[in-house]
Write a sequence for this structure.
């Protein structure tokens, strides 16, 4: 009787593991869950300096229709050592990934970042325009 119980327990455990490892939960190349969400936008944007303190002179203006972000930074900010931070809608991701500081010093050529929806189909490219605050 014990032997039959162990066999049933092993079969039940094996079938549970097999079902859980199925393709019910697809993931992308970054190991993130692919969902059905198609929303694709930036909710908030922050710029931090080398000391991880904000360098914004005022709140960033995010236009989700024009897909632009306009931000004014404090006079004297080292634009070669900026840590941008994006707050995205649920399940979205950013391309290119931000892995460290970013050089925003070429103001004539604004940076572009693509927001990719949770379904990994909808993509919107945002342009980040940086303006330096006037000298006080």
């Amino acid at each position: 009787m014990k032997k039959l119980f162990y066999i049933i327990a092993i079969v039940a455990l094996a079938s549970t593991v097999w079902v859980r490892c199925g393709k019910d939960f697809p993931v992308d190349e970054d190991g993130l869950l692919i969902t059905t969400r198609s929303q694709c936008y930036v909710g908030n944007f922050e710029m931090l300096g080398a000391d991880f303190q904000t360098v914004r002179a005022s709140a960033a203006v995010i236009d989700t229709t024009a897909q632009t972000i306009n931000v004014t930074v404090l006079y004297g900010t080292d634009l070669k050592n900026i840590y941008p931070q994006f707050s995205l809608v649920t399940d979205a991701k950013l391309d290119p990934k931000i892995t460290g500081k970013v050089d925003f010093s070429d103001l004539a050529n604004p940076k572009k970042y693509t927001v990719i929806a949770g379904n990994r189909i909808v993509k919107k490219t945002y342009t980040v325009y940086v303006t330096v605050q006037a000298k006080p």
User: Anything to note?
Assistant: Residues 10 and 16 are 10 Å apart (CA to CA). Helices lie at 2-20.
